[in-house]
Amino acid sequence: MRALQTTLPAQPKRIILINPTRYLGNLLIAGGLIQDFAHYCSSHGIEFRLVVDDMYADLLTGAFDKKTLILYPRRRIAKAGFLQKCRLYLQCLRGLRRLKADLAFNIEDDSVSHRLTQFSGAAFKLGCSPQRHRWGYQRVLPIAFAERPAGKEHRWYSFQEVFTALGLPQGKPHYLKLQPPALSATLKQRLQQCGVDFSSNLAVLHTGATKYYKLWPHVNFAALALRLQQAGYQVVLMGAGKDARDIEATLAILPESARTHIVNLCNQLSLAELAGFLAAHASLMVGNDSGPFHLAAALGVPGVVVFGPTEASLWGPIADNAILLQDRSVCSADCSRKHCRHNYRCLPAITPDHVMAALEKLQPAK
């Protein structure tokens, strides 16, 4: 290793990154660095492995060599009984320990990454959080996830610091490079049966989010859908799981004449299929601060993302064709993500007119 050779193994032959994040956005933001590090390891004769949540296995096909991935079965563990939980967890650990890594490291301070790193069996364990990684590590890097230098506030730079310590040359922020497969003829036919017109310009809307303080009002999404229809786009609503409630709330606001021409693909596509659909057929995307918007941005889809109280400098998209809209001028000085005396009025402060104007900057309205 080029950096910190006095404290890190000088010539590791086997390195494993423990990164089973459940957040798609985090994976996409860190993914470009992970790919770069995988190439770095290959060019230096180092065997590299990556632990990821198994929900992303299909999405990562082509992005990493299949033998590189060790899958963490988070969803199966969550649904299993106690004994089955233990079996699934131990099965993952056996895959980790089988490598007999010279070095195991993590880039986030979540509890799952922490425990898997501790139990990895690696000769040297490198952590990134002095607050969480106090025990079981040979070295912990003092990574600042908040209060960072100006111009390097984004989480990407926090991730980069870990890889730089391991010898990876510094670069510019970039997403994970995905290689989504083309939609099969069967899937295209099914989507056409759902109402998708592949000859149209498709405007994809993601109305859901994991947190209530990230939700742009349903009435705004409904008004935007009407504007996009008037501009000649076919509107496609996408999401999964609990997103269905937000989609139904948006559709309920629309008049029947508009609703019949909107395609609802909630729970109709796997994550890999969604990536293929976005990459090949989406003309634009508008969404909340969420993983699906980062996915579209990573795939090169022009888009607009609406931010509420979330730190835009920390979690905004890292693509040139994505515009972030946020209005904190209506907030009080003590407003935060989980405390707002104004019912998050920063969200409705962004209007459909603002979004349409931003989209026009990205591409002329059709």
Question: What would you note in describing this structure?
Answer:
- The protein has 366 residues and is of the alpha/beta class.
- The chain has two domains: 14-165, 3-Layer(aba) Sandwich (Rossmann fold); 185-362, Rossmann fold, CATH 3.40.50.2000.
- Helices cover 37% and strands 15% of the residues.
- The chain is built from 13 helices and twelve strands.
- Helix 1 crosses helix 11.
- The N and C termini lie far apart (52 Å).
- Residues 1-6 have low confidence and may be disordered.
What's the assembly state of these chains? single chain
CATH-defined fold name of the largest domain: Rossmann fold
Shape-level CATH architecture of the largest domain: 3-Layer(aba) Sandwich
The CATH superfamily of the largest domain is Glycogen Phosphorylase B
**Helical percentage:** 25-40%
Rounded to an integer in angstroms, the radius of gyration calculated over CA atoms is 22 Å
Mean pLDDT, as a whole number?
93
**Sheet with most strands: strand arrangement:** 3-2-1-4-5-6
How many structural domains? 2
Helix-and-strand structural type: alpha/beta
Number of helices: 13
Largest sheet: 6 strands, parallel
- Given the C-alpha coordinates, what overall shape results? globular
Order of H and E elements: EHEEHHEHEEHHEHEHHEHEHEHEH
Q: What is the class of the largest domain in the CATH system?
A: Alpha Beta
